[in-house]
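Problem: given the chain below (118 residues), write out its structure.
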Amino acid sequence: MHLVPADRADRRTIDGHRVCDAIAAIGDAGRVRAWADRFALLADPKRLALLLALHRTGPLAVSDLAVATGMNDPAVSQALRLLRAAGAVTGEKEGRVVRYRVVDPELAALLAHCTADD
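Solution.
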């Protein structure tokens, strides 16, 4: 099946069948963007530390995450705001305490893969 888009069909290829396979492997541009956004979240060591802690332990409050990661409470809160806006985590309020947990299943699977050797 020929997958080269019409706007690129006039360009010369060396291995045309591999080009089509590469286009198929890349897939939907929206899905590529979603994964790029996930990787951007993981690119910051502090956000990654928060996600790993939440993934491994389950719901934790901001102050507990601050102690676990060595960050201060405002920095944890700011990172969690970003992670929450991206749909990676959610907070569940219990009285005055909000405990956060990872809710993006694809991100959770990636975190599980990253920590599988531990």
